[in-house]
Design a protein that fits this description.
Length: 321
């Protein structure tokens, strides 16, 4: 467990050129992406001079900000969330070129999903754990410290995807299908962030269980000091497996939208099972369905709905064939 990855600042003046170089690297990569676009699209982007000014402006802002508030802690969860988003965007842009939609469209789509997903995930988590935030409302915005509900994230991302599809005139079901494997890939990486952050932890396990882990004393996951199930890593492995299955079955699913529904079905099965090993705020019992947890109840509803929808859509397609 390493909740805080590192601390930044205060920075000396000689660090300023290094900051410029670090900021320039992702912008240079973005310009490489621009080269693959049409000339018309490229003209809408900022010029080289504008990019250089942006780099200097960002670097100066960071230098002032970090030195004023130093040391600024970089949380592992936030870093892994960024890595997850980058991996998901990369997969969408690579795998979706066959649909004739430009890379910039997919990148814009990913940003829409990211914003909507984070808002939805945070809102649902805060609602389910309101007593934790009632006395400290500003803590609601500390997303980098953890505290996101994945089911809320799916709902928020779907709303964003629908709005994006209406704005750009792209089939919503196509967006959902392309985003399904990317979501599974990103989820697997984000769960590593949960492991480093010490959230979403599991129940105590047998001392002989080879995967049992003891988290640092004084943390929620480390109380009491006994081996527990690293459910974050179980989730990461399960999501990688789901990603692999989705990629393999994608060519055989002919009904648009069903790949995303299949993802929801696989996710619901995994989540229902892993909840038996989880504890803490992320595994609260749902009073109306005790002893099932809130996530297990949601998994049953989502999984059953997805399965019925898949069967109905397939039967309709076969009837119209």
């Amino acid at each position: 467990m390493r909740s805080v990855l590192c601390a930044m600042g205060p920075w000396p003046l000689w660090a300023y050129p290094i900051i410029v170089v670090v900021i320039s690297l992702p912008l240079a990569l973005w310009r490489r992406v621009e080269q693959a676009m049409s000339e018309q699209e490229r003209q809408r982007r900022t010029s080289l001079l504008g990019t250089a000014l942006a780099v200097l402006g960002i670097a100066a802002g960071l230098h002032i900000l970090v030195n004023h508030f130093a040391p600024i802690q970089i949380h592992s969860y936030g870093v892994m969330l960024i890595v997850a988003v980058v991996a998901g965007v990369w997969w969408m842009t690579v795998s979706a070129r066959a649909y004739g939609i430009s890379d910039t469209q997919w990148i814009d789509f990913a940003l829409f999903m990211l914003i909507g997903g984070i808002i939805g995930a945070r809102v649902l988590f805060v609602i389910l754990n309101w007593e934790q935030y009632a006395g400290a409302p500003l803590a609601v915005f500390s997303v980098w410290e953890g505290g996101l509900s994945y089911l809320g994230g799916i709902a928020g991302a779907l709303v964003s995807a629908y709005l994006f599809s209406r704005q750009r005139g792209i089939d919503f079901k196509l967006l959902a299908d392309v985003g399904a494997p990317a979501t599974a890939l990103g989820y697997s990486l984000a769960r590593i962030g949960c492991f480093l952050n010490g959230c979403c932890y599991g129940h105590a396990c047998s001392p002989d269980w080879p995967l049992g882990m003891v988290f640092p004393p004084g943390t929620d996951a480390g109380t009491p000091q006994v081996p527990i199930h690293p459910t974050q890593l179980y989730a990461s492995f399960a999501s990688i497996l789901i990603f692999y299955v989705l990629v393999k079955v994608q060519p055989y699913i002919k009904v648009r939208g069903n790949l995303f529904l299949f993802y929801l079905l696989l996710y619901s099965v995994y989540r229902f099972l892993v909840e038996f090993l989880r504890r803490g705020a992320s595994a609260q019992v749902f009073a109306l369905m005790a002893p099932l947890t809130e996530a297990q109840t949601a998994s049953i509803i989502i999984g059953a709905t997805a399965l019925v929808w898949i069967l109905v859509s397939r039967s309709r397609t076969e009837a119209n064939a």
